[in-house]
Design a protein that fits this description.
This protein has about 240 residues and is an alpha/beta fold. Helices cover about 35% and strands about 25% of the residues. The chain binds nicotinamide-adenine-dinucleotide.
Amino acid sequence: MRIALIGYGKMGREIEKIALDRKHEIVSIIDISNPEDFDSQGFLSAEAAIEFSQPQSAFDNYQKCFERNVPVVAGTTGWLSRLDEVKKNCETCNKTFFYASNFSIGVNIFFAVNRYLAKIMNNFPGYEVSMEEIHHIHKLDSPSGTGITLAEGILENIDRKTQWKEATEGLPTDLLIHSKREGEVPGIHEIFYESEADTISIKHDAKSRKGFALGAVLAAEFVKGKKGFFTMKDMLDF
Ligand SMILES: NC(=O)c1ccc[n+]([C@@H]2O[C@H](COP(=O)([O-])OP(=O)(O)OC[C@H]3O[C@@H](n4cnc5c(N)ncnc54)[C@H](O)[C@@H]3O)[C@@H](O)[C@H]2O)c1
């Protein structure tokens, strides 16, 4: 299929490789210096645009895609305060939008395990839950989008926790998230349940960006010919 890339950084380049391997055509590459290419023939011919740019630019880029009727696969994190606006624009104007805080299939399996474990732990108040997320030093948002999705999965299932907080201390009702930024780490997320007797932890450790990039290309293939707002739950049938 014909794919446009918006944001040609670490993720954009990885997605390009995987899209070409899967025999897709890259019809346009837009980064910060060539926004005029939103009106290029290549971009207008795209069957999906895959957007991995920066938190401050993501929303405007989505609007530009909607205005040009190009379906969006959105990977940028750190813009979620505007999610409802995007959903509304997508649904009322009959556009196509696929968002995942994390496109990796492995991470999405981890999300499901996280929700299941939290459901069990709701009945065991002796276990204190917390999260650690580690990413490379270039990451702009904190906690990570993946960390927020994991936190939401815990808050939905554990009644004794009412909100997440990025801190080392808080109220008993706070789910504490420790965010660390180290070297070139692609992404590590670990959830701890600690009691006086033991610790149970579940961990996802991304070996590279390949898993995210493959998931984004699979999402572009999934939205082809579809209208509406989609997430990984629509694409993966757990
Ligand atoms: N959803 C996921 O699975 C997933 C996985 C990895 C990274 N991410 C997120 O994707 C985003 C990009 O990550 P990255 O590692 O590729 O970052 P990066 O810094 O390597 O690349 C970002 C690129 O966006 C470009 N850019 C800046 N402003 C732009 C604009 N207005 N229009 C178009 N391009 C613009 C930059 O010049 C740069 O080339 C981040 O928000 C990151 O958190 C999401």
